[in-house]
Model the fold of this input.
Amino acid sequence: MSNKAHAALGFDDYGHHSDELETEVLTGLAKPQKRISSKYFYDERGSKLFEQICDLDEYYVTRTELTLLRAHAKDIADAVGPGAAMIEFGSGASLKERILLDALVAPVAYIPVDISKDHLLGAARALATDYPDLPVHGVCADYTRHFDLPEIAAKGNHFGFFPGSTIGNFSRPEAAEFLRKAGQTLGKGAGMVVGVDLKKDPAILHAAYNDASGVTAAFNLNLLIRVNRELGADFDLDAFSHMARYDASGGYVEMLLRSEREQTVTISGQQFDFTVGETIHTEFSCKYGVDEFRQLAAGVGMTPAHCWVDEKELFSIHYLVVD
Done:
């Protein structure tokens, strides 16, 4: 990395690390429906596995969103206006933010926010190398909670970016609350681009979350590897299997880890019993209708300004403005 790129790279760490993981895992596994939050998928290995998922034939989400972004990057840039500070909720070493950065007129900063410190630093450094004239400032934080934007953000209009249908990982009430908090962080008049997966044929969804090569299964099971490594747990990976199913009435895919036998798992001195077939909920992936999502955003003080949908009506990109 050049000295110029180093000079343009800043970093804030809000300290959401293993102590929080322990508290949330112990609390989640004590519930009648055991659960581990999907935000803990993205350690270094999990992030790499997700990048592999994005390249799978069955996983339409990434390639469809990329096509939409390429087709409408100028439209988004026109809506954002010149001199914008781009705040990405969840950092990714992907093409998505680069497509928008290349289209924006005189952007003043790129600010990725992510809970995974190693992944965040790697993504921020890579982008700072490729955009040596653009100040890059990573923020290691749980973006579902309050965090302060770095001072560099004050140099331009705030513009939020939340791609990949990550909004679907929240329940609908949680998604509304996230948008409300994001709007408070970005400020009145700020724009926000959100990738939203659409309701569709259940067979397409089943294939996307149960790929033939087993990458999604490895991604799901990596949660247990992380808990074993970071909390000294004794999950037997061979005793759990990946499950993903679509609930048409609820409009969501649910990912689970299924216990294949009766067993007891010890974490931080606490024991958790599993029966055969008992599950750990690891992820919701809510699907929306276009009008449904627009109404959700409007209900928390964001005006739906633009929406772009692909020809097959698989995916949508929404441009919202904070009221």
Notes: The radius of gyration is 20 Å.
